[in-house]
Design goal:
The protein contains eleven helices and ten strands. It is of the alpha/beta class.
Length: 363
């Protein structure tokens, strides 16, 4: 056997992107290349639907800025001023769901969209003024709904829009945000925020903290995607993990430790889902912002918000890795929504229900 044959091993055939020195240390953060390549060849007019935690909104804005087909399945009524539309959560995600922080909440929306659950299954809360609040979307109507019927009609409208996002989109982008959540121990209802922190009344006999584990998140995500693929067998799902740290934790741990746990579990779930399903891919927005080589340079002074330079870098890698070389399958279709200028969109604040927790910080 020749010396060359004896010294051969798999690492001799790994490209430069597989070694830390050549892929990370030498090029530096702004020199990363070939960081992500889409697993799919998409039509050049591919339609994207976006949902999830606050960070998901950056993807929808970037798609609109580039005049790509971002699906707005539940637009504001005609002639609604932009500021008012945003206040009522129109055009934030592809349907008026508000933030979907956990896989458990995604599963609820999939069941509502498919008809497995009805609007009456979603818990409502009556405030001191007699207004109704939908506990799946607690901040969707700033003043609440006038009646149970109005609240359920709004839920049904959003469920139908969410269904259209599943059946009409080519790519469903979902950003995982949290492992922590709250549930109703009697009904099993999963909340987007803890009752009593924004709407609702906290009852320690009914409301329980849940820090979802890897198996629980994987199970809920699997169940949600099974429903979605029954509705659209051709749907592709692109998972990301939000790099934004927790505002607060109810786990009893230091918030830094709790954040690292949540992001690690979500990253593991997303990666394993992508490895298990050809129709699922993972985009590394979390790593681009939060990995050690960035030295936290892309976080705002509060060490939580993401600076625009970081968002821009994430989006550059996202669009560099997309493969839109397949022929358009809807040649007569125009962009799903009109774009605003990139500068104007960058100035807008994200809609993030979790931020309401900061008002309870008395430190």
């Amino acid at each position: 056997m020749s010396d060359e044959r004896k010294n051969d091993n798999p690492y001799r055939h790994i490209p430069a992107r597989g070694f830390w020195r050549s892929a990370v240390a030498e090029p530096g953060v702004f020199g990363f290349s070939d960081l992500w390549k889409s697993a799919w060849t998409l039509p050049k007019d591919a339609v994207f639907a976006t949902f999830g935690s606050c960070f998901a909104q950056h993807i929808s804005r970037a798609l609109m800025t580039r005049k790509m087909n971002w699906l707005n399945a539940e637009p504001a009524p005609g002639r609604t001023p932009p500021d008012l539309a945003k206040r009522y959560n129109y055009g934030v995600f592809s349907a008026r769901t508000g933030n979907i922080y956990t896989a458990a909440q995604l599963l609820i929306w999939a069941r509502l969209a498919s008809g497995e659950r009805g609007a009456e299954s979603v818990e409502l809360w009556t405030d001191g003024d007699g207004r109704m609040h939908d506990m799946l979307r607690p901040k969707i109507e700033p003043q609440g709904f006038e009646s149970v019927e109005e609240a359920q009609a709004s839920l049904l409208s959003t469920a139908r829009a969410f269904a259209r996002c599943i059946t009409e989109a080519d790519v469903f982008v979902f950003t995982l945000g949290l492992t922590e959540g709250w549930v109703n121990t009697r009904s099993g209802h999963s909340y987007s925020i803890c009752p009593g922190t924004g709407v609702g009344t906290f009852d320690p006999e009914v409301h329980a903290f849940r820090n979802y584990t890897y198996p629980e998140i994987m199970r809920d995500l699997d169940l949600a995607l099974e429903i979605m693929w029954r509705m659209n067998p051709n749907l592709r799902v692109l998972l990301t993990v939000s790099p934004v740290p927790l505002v607060a934790t109810a786990s009893g741990e230091h918030v830094l430790v709790a954040t690292q746990y949540s992001k690690s579990v979500l990253r593991a779930v997303a990666g394993d889902m992508a490895r298990s399903h050809d129709a699922v891919d993972y985009f590394p927005s979390y790593e681009i912002i939060a990995a050690p080589p960035t030295r936290a340079a892309f976080f705002e002074p509060n060490m939580r918000g993401i600076a625009q330079d970081g968002v821009d870098l994430v989006m550059r890698h996202f669009f560099a890795g997309l493969d839109l070389s397949a022929p358009a399958h809807r040649p007569d279709r125009t962009s799903a929504t009109e774009s605003e200028s990139e500068a104007e969109m960058a100035r807008e604040d994200l809609v993030c229900e979790e931020m309401i927790l900061e008002k309870f910080n008395d430190a």
